[in-house]
Amino acid sequence: MVQPKAPALVPNSSAARALNLIGDRWTLLVLYAAFMRVSRFEGFIAMTGMARSLLVDRLGRLEAAGVLERRPYQTRPARHEYHLTAMGKDLYDSALMLLGWEMRWRMDPACPSHQIIHDPCGHPLRPVLVCQACTAPVKVRDIVLSPGPGAGSEPAPRARHSRRASDGPGTEGVGGVPLHPMLERSIEVLGDRWTAHLVAASFYGQTRFKDLQAQLKVASNILTDRLTRLVERGMLERRLYQTRPERWEYRLTREGRDFFPLIAALMAWGDRWLSGEAG
Fold this sequence. Notes:
Blueprint: E1 9-11, H1 14-22, H2 25-35, H3 41-48, H4 52-65, E2 68-74, E3 79-84, H5 86-89, H6 92-105, E4 117-118, E5 123-124, E6 153-155, H7 181-190, H8 193-203, H9 209-216, H10 220-232, E7 236-243, E8 246-252, H11 254-257, H12 260-273
Antiparallel strand pairs: 1-6, 2-3, 4-5, 7-8
């Protein structure tokens, strides 16, 4: 009798749980539309260009996770709207950090989403992660990451088919609907499960191939592909640390390190909503 294979274990991480939930290009597009106050099915179709079956799937996932809730607005025939719950609205901090990263590295003065105005004072707003105690801007090199009370391992999430942003329609979107400029760059990182997890692992000090593979439980060809893409996009840089045979480590660039506020925001959101009893 063949014994069932034990599930692979990965370190507990609130950021990883958050990425497992929203780290998908189509889920990100649905959330973007929801934050833009789209609530009806046809509105989501119009803004994202998603296939109807795909939209049904992503709306269902977000509803099951508690990020969206359905509200009837018509009875004959039955029609529902999809609204952000408290859990969904709490992703606003993460959305701001994502936008802040976009504005620092891919600022587009013609993009309305890159022109945030702070209503009380009327001045342009630039989202920045600051320390709650001293209010100084937080840089990744100024912090120490240490295991919390929920440290340990948990089963690796089940793999799902996730089309990479570069495999999709690009800036033309789907069905001729353009991707919003705010998402064009960010979706390349967050919209692919393995790319997002790889960036998150880099913030925990993992730089070498075998260490990254051991932590992420990812196939070597997939890891090679994602490392190459992140180097090409300027998020990681290769550094030779051994010559015979050649061995390379992968370190975050300035742009890559500047992604940390978003990872921190997702970690805080995951702590609040996805930690469970273990923390």
